[in-house]
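ugh ok fine here u go
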Amino acid sequence: MEIICIDNGYKAKSKSVIALGNFDGVHIGHKELLKNLVNMAKEKNIKSSILVFKNHTKNLLAKKAQNLITSNRKKYELFENMGIDIIYEIAFTKEIMRLEPEYFVENFLKENLLIEGIVVGYDYKFGYKAKGDTKLLKELSDKNSIDLIVVDKISDDGEAISSTRIRNLIKNSNIKKANQLLGYNFSMDCLVVHGKKLGSKMGYPTANLELLDDYIIPKFGVYDSNVIINNKLYKAVTNIGKNPTIENSGIRIESNIIDFNQDIYGQKIELILLDYIRSEKKFDSIDSLFEQIKKDRKIVEDRFL
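structure:
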């Protein structure tokens, strides 16, 4: 897979078909859309491509950071697994935001990127002030001899599968359902940082983790989890919250990694959440806290075995 950083004046060297959207989460609805893209590319014997914004569109439109389900690193990994050939990576700027729908299709997509086919979801909006919808996209595609596929709503339990729905599930601790709709397990890229080392003193060493992107923060509590360290998978018990028994300043993420005792300070790891075990709570003593950690760990070990 080729990643090409572009601006709106970039000229492609070869034709392709393209998928348009934010694709946060690359959930099972997105995957249906991407299957259509790959099939269209094969039928035309040209490459498949995706236009990806380096920053989420809502960061500029709403003037605040959009909490993400997937980092671009994870998103690109999932795209590659789907068989996508090219990622066109572009910053979502005021200049891009102000492109009229007609200019976006006729000049940017058709003339600059040499697009022969487009695949979008049923609710896709584009152009200045989101004036463009799938009806206008159909008109512009026909006018410019571009094939268009609009993928219908993909539902689960009668409700559309969407990034917003999955974010809400994660925020409300329903990790198992979120993972079902994603089609894989929700994860966050983290950096291992120094902590108080209290866990090590009590016989339960933990990796203190710092998030490397603006992820949606799961409901505070304890999670059955995995961590990937140097491409190897380990079981872990992870607490996300404010650690009220010891301190109450900012969000803390701590993973007690089972059967692991290596020094990984300063390393990047992937934290994967599998299931919610219990809510976070304040204990009367440090001893009570670590007695509960022992019980939490036993739950995870029993599931693993």
